[in-house]
Structure formats: structure tokens, C-alpha cells
């Protein structure tokens, strides 16, 4: 897909990406920094970002150099270490390489640990403030799909997935993906519109791996979660709106396209999308009047296809027929300050374990490599989250922080987890791992990271260009 976001939305995505990565890297590196100092290991530099320093300051009794650098894709803490240069004999006892193994391991684990603690803090704030969310109620079910053959029906409420209770749309989605990657069979307990409960078992067979790709699971299974259809009231126009140029105004209700009745925005989109660069008659209600306008939808590229757009934005209000269901769908997750601590910790733990399972399944080939995302996808996600409000942005920060913490624990030599392996090997051998072995491990680690980043960039770009 080639993005059709406005310049303002692109700028917001970039800014929120820089802010989010800056915060999470600062949290991670502060973990290393704080624990090292507490354990008596000297810190030489605390840097957020790489490359040319944009700001730097030397402060404190130890003359620590604090730096904000030009490339905001990481950071580091430089510790006193005899392997990286000459050390004043008076400070040898404060060097990282001379510290006991348990202290070195503690410093290395502190970064990922602080990311997980930060996620707990974000979730705690959200649970205390209250998080508006949606119940897991099934919307449309595609005829003759996996879901339809299993007996899933529109307006079924999902009660549990793989025996685990789910109360929100988010937990139902995660549970469904978790069950899918486990053995390819998804087991749900659902409640129908009449109040009766039954089991639904969806067997994906040979399609299991393909369905783990981003944005393919629900369409591949053949169902979606219920969402209110929006009224066709015009709330605003974008900067290049052909509808505004043709004379439509805010507050107009679109009721027809080429004499075909229109009742909601989804139906309007279905009629306008194939009409790129072709004049259509748009009928609106304005007060007590019914007016016709000749409009030529502009051509935008979405998912590699040309689609027609009027350049209008809805008010976001549900259609009259969906108001009652909208109220039924809504729920709020809210807890007291004490109870929220346990709930936030449990959510962080569950999400961390789920992330580890996904990584493991990618390694074994059970989950598609297309799920690996890079900076472009993260920027789009943070930008979208910021537009949705602070609650969504905090939730996104928590998820990325968990990913950062968990991935840094992987036993890849250049990451914290790989360095911990070196320290434990020294504990077992009784002497440090040879420099040759460490150099070889670092080369392997760098190669793995370059491969992962290349794949992530490829996936990001492919998602924007694939038909």
C-alpha cells in the first residue's frame, strides 16, 4: 500500500516514533545505568541515540557524559572496562570486567527489566483511569468459510478461547492467534443471541501458517468482530477533497450515489471505490432539502490498487440501527490503585510470554516471517495511536516496551541476553570466554541483527507496495 496520509499525519507519525523510541530507549539504558552505579561499577557515558551528539553534558562526581545523539534508533551505556582501554589503577576495582559475575548479570538484565516495569506502569495508569474497550461480539460471518462451517454465527459473544476466559475484543484476538499458532485448531466457547452456550471448533488445516500473517487471520477464518456502521453525515473534509470542491458541506447526509440508496459509510465506500476518475451523482440531505451534486472521485492508491475517494471524513457516529448494539458492545476496564498493580503485572507477564511464543514459532517456521515489523510499521502504529488519544498511545508504548525487553533477552551475542550467556559461561569455566570466541559471537550477532532488520524493512516496504 502506498500511504495516502496527509503531510500532517506523516509528520505526526515521525514525531511520535522519535518520542516513543526515545522514551523506551531511555528507560532501557537507565536500567543499566542505575543498577551499575548502585553496584559500584563506574559509568562513563549515557547516550540516547547514535552518531553525532546533538547535546552533551558532563555532570556528577564521576564526571558522567550524558549525550543525545542524531540517530534515535537506540542508545547505550558505556561502562569502565579494561578491555576497552587503559584504566586508572585507582579505579580498576570499579571496572565492569572486574565485577563479580552476579553483578555483571544484574547490570545486563536491568535494561530489559526496566522495560517490563515501564509496561506495568503504563498498564497501571490505564487500569486506574479506566480503559473503554469493546466486547468480543462476532460481526459478519462469511458463508462457507472456516468459521461458518464450524458453526460461528453473527452476534455470538465469545466467552473463552482454548479454555481461557476473554472479556474484551483485544483478549479474544490474542487468544485466537495464540490458539492458532499452537496447533492450528481454534476452540471457542460462545453465547448466542438467545443466551445459549455452545462450543465452536475451527480447524485451519494446511492454512495454519498462512493465517498467522498480519491482517490475514480474521479474513482467512471468515469472520470479523462486530463494529458499528457509521452514519453518512459529513464531519469534515481533507485537504484535497473533491466533494468540498463540488459543493458538499459539513453536516450534509449522503443518501445516494447514482440513485442507489446509501445508509452507512461502509456502503458509501463500496460505491465510490470503483468510481475513480469517473463522474457520479451524489445525493445529500441538507436540512429539509434533497440536493444532487456531480462529483468525480479522485484516484488514490491503496494496497496497490486504484480506488475512488471523495475526501470526506465521517462524524464517527453510529447509524441509528446500530445504536443499541453499540451500547451492548461497550465495556470499561477499571480498577482501584491497589488491584490495578496485580492486573498490570499479570497483563505484562501474559504479553511477554505471548511475545516469546511468537518469536519461538517464527524460529520454528510455524508463524510467518511477514509478522516481523520495522521502524516504518512502528512509526505508523505510534502515529495512529497518538491520533486516537493518550490511552491508545500509552497502550502502544507498553506493547513496544515489552517487545524491546523480551527481544533483548534473546541469546544473541550482541544483545543483553547474549552477554548474559557469556557471563554464565565464565561462571561455569572459571575464566572469561576468550576474546576470539567473543569476537566470533559478536560477528554472528551483528549478522543476525542485520538479517532481522533487513527482513523488517522488507516487510514494511512490501506492505506498502504489494497488490
TrEMBL record:
What biological-process terms (Gene Ontology) are attached? proteolysis
Q: Which cofactor does it need?
A: Zn(2+)
Question: Is Isomerase one of the keywords UniProt gives this record?
Answer: no
Q: How does it sit in the membrane?
A: Multi-pass membrane protein
For this record, an example GO cellular component is:
membrane
The molecular function terms in GO held by this entry are: metal ion binding; metalloendopeptidase activity
Segments spanning the bilayer are: 12-35, 105-126, 439-458
Q: Which InterPro entries match?
A: PDZ, PDZ_6, PDZ_sf, Pept_M50_Zn, Peptidase_M50
UniProt-annotated location(s): Membrane
Q: Which SMART domains match?
A: PDZ (SM00228)
- The EC number of this protein is 3.4.24.-
PDZ domain spans which residues? 122-194, 219-288
Official protein name in the record: Zinc metalloprotease
Q: What is the lineage of its organism?
A: Bacteria, Pseudomonadati, Pseudomonadota, Gammaproteobacteria, Steroidobacterales
